[in-house]
Amino acid sequence: NDHGFKVIVITNQAGVARGYFGEDKVEEIHQEMKRQLRVLLLAQL
């Protein structure tokens, strides 16, 4: 990517399909992941 970081994407879309959790939970997880990444990236500055 633009900043030279390696990016790893992990998905568990089967969990939604199987009814383990809803799309709203996935969105909640995504938002928390983004928040944590921002914190980590800012700590690197």
What is the string of helix and strand elements?
Answer: HH
Tell me the fraction of residues in β-strands, as a range.
under 5%
Question: How many individual β-strands?
Answer: 0
Low-confidence stretches: none
Number of helices: 2
Shape: elongated
Cα-atom radius of gyration: 14 Å
Integer count of domains: 1
Distance between the termini: 17 Å
- Specify the structural class: mainly alpha
What is the residue-mean pLDDT, rounded to a whole number?
87
Q: How would a textbook summarize the main sheet?
A: none
Helix content: 55-70%
Question: What does this molecule look like?
Answer:
- This protein has 45 residues and is mostly helical.
- It has one domain (13-44).
- Helix content is 58%, strand content 0%.
- It has 2 helices and no strands.
- The longest helix has 21 residues, at 23-43.
- The protein starts with 12 loop residues before the first helix and ends with a helix.
- The model has no long low-confidence stretch (mean pLDDT 87).
Which tags fit this structure?
0% strand, 45 residues, 2 helices, mainly alpha, HAD-like_sf
Give a quick precis of the structure.
With 45 residues, this protein is mainly alpha-helical. The chain contains 2 helices and no strands. It has one domain (13-44).
